[in-house]
Every structure is written in C-alpha cells, then in structure tokens.
Amino acid sequence: MARTAVFGGSFNPVHYGHLLLADEVAEALSLDRVLFVPAAAPPHKPASQLAPAADRYAMVALAVAGHPKFVVSDIELRRSGPSYTVDTLEALGLPRPVLFLLMGSETFLDLLTWRAPRRVARLAQLTVVPRLGSVFDPESAAARKVVHEVGEEPLVVHATSLPISASDLRRRAREGRSLAYRLPPAVGEYIEAKRLYRGESS
Fold first, then answer.
1. What pairs with residue 36 in β-bridges?
2. Which H/E stretch holds residue 99?
3. Between 53-64 and 185-194, two packed helices, what is the crossing angle to 10 degrees?
4. pLDDT at 129 over 80
5. pLDDT score, position 188
6. Which residue among 36, 122, 159, 163 sits deepest, i.e. has the most Cβ atoms within 10 Å of its Cβ?
7. What's the pLDDT at 159?
8. Which CATH number goes with the domain that contains 87?
9. Is 200 inside any structural domain?
C-alpha cells in the first residue's frame, strides 16, 4: 500500500517553500506520494483573504505537474462546509501506518483547537516539520500537553524551510512586483492572467 503524506493548506498561493519541503519529506520518509490538499474553506482563515478555491487548486496542479510523487486532490473542494482535516483523512480511508499528516510546529501546538484532534491522530501519523526560525521542542510543556490529549507522539522531520511567505507573495502581486524565483513560473503566469490578489487590502 502506498506510503502517503497529506499536505493540506490554503496554498494562497502555493510556492517553492511548499514544494521543497514536500520533496525533502518524501525522501526522508520514503514516501510513494505526497497528496497536496487545498482547503476549500479553511476553518481558521477568513474567506475574504483567500483566492477562490478553484484558483488555488489550479495553481497547485500547475506547481506539482511533472513531479513523480506529487499529486493534487480536490477532495475538500468537492465537500461542502468547512474543510476539516478529520473528514479528509476519514474519506481517504488509508491505514495509519502508511498515512502521514504534514504540519508545521506551530500547527501541531495549535492542534487541540481542531475538530476531533484525537481522531486525527488516530487516523494518520502526525508529522511535524519545524519552520524556518522555529525551534520545536517535543519535550516542552506545550508539546506534551498536545501529546497527552491526543494520545500519540508526533514524528519530527527536519526539512529545508525557505524564507518565502504567501502573504508576501500576495502583497507583491497586489503591487505588481516580481514573483520570479519564489514560485513556479506557471503559477506566476496564472496569478497574472487571473489578476489574483489585486483587490486585497492587506
């Protein structure tokens, strides 16, 4: 059975930081595939700050094209209501030994605010990838609280974290500045053609 990592997020927009992280984690965990899952309606983010879900999905599809282990899924776009990770993992139906859930260290520490966090940890191996400038101590009081509540230890994988932020890319797009070398050219062309992020106020 294919060893699969679920890499969810708003991908608003997807960039080289996401892609490099996924490639290195795929190598470190000997994965067969990384499933990019753009959230249709992320529960923790206001819709007003997001490009349309169909556009964010299309940008991820352009970004992962050609990579032998990268796949984009529209599973959350096909489901109505908020995009809860627990629903996605249940729908995938893969056993926990071959299913990994990628998340940043800050996200792991915030896991108890998610819907059914214990169920999430039962469905997939929580895989924490510390972000640039972030020191994740799995023995810290905050981390131990999460582990105690969900009943599962996280797997910590270190991967290169590029200093690229989606918020900076949106700002650059809004100001008509260059996106080169920060995201795949096809994604930059899509943003330009669709005039995405031009109406943002922040």
1. 7, 72
2. strand 99-104
3. 150
4. yes
5. 98
6. 36
7. 93
8. 3.40.50.620
9. no
pLDDT 10s digits, 78-90:
998 899 999 999 9
Confidence tier at 200 by pLDDT (50, 70, 90): low
Q: Which residues pair with 126 in a beta bridge?
A: 101
**CA neighbours within 13 Å on the CB side: how many for 22?**
28
Element (H, E) at 19: helix 16-28
Identity of the residue numbered 149: E
The answer to the question of residue 109 being in a domain is: yes
Q: Is the dihedral of CA 85, 90, 96, 100 positive or negative?
A: negative
Which amino acid, residue 38? P
* Residue (of 14, 31, 170, 44) closest to 102 by Cα position: 31
CA separation, residue 142 to residues 101, 148, 202 (Å): 20, 10, 31
Three-class SS of residue 81?
coil
Number of domains in the chain: 1
Tell me, rounded to whole angstroms, the distance of Cα 72 from its chain centroid: 11
